[in-house]
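A reminder from the course coordinator: this example appears on the midterm review sheet, so study it carefully.

Given structure:
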């Protein structure tokens, strides 16, 4: 199952599942580092964080735009 990380609240990570429903996952149960917008994958009972390529591409675009603006 895949989720998109929406935000972190205290010791919970709030995610949107593939059906568009919001769920809370304990922060301690997630392997790896992550940020809002990243993908969370549940495999064999373990949550793994994976960088969302769209977020990464947007960050690169923003940096390029700022650099060319000056």
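Designed residues:
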């Amino acid at each position: 199952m895949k989720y998109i990380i929406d935000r972190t609240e205290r010791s919970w990570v709030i995610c949107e599942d593939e059906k568009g429903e919001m769920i809370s996952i304990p922060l301690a149960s997630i392997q790896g580092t992550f940020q809002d917008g990243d993908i969370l994958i549940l495999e064999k009972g373990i949550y793994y964080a994976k960088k969302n390529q769209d977020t990464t591409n947007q960050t690169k675009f923003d940096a390029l735009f700022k650099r060319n603006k000056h």
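Residues 1 and 36 are 18 Å apart (CA to CA). The helical segments are 53-69.
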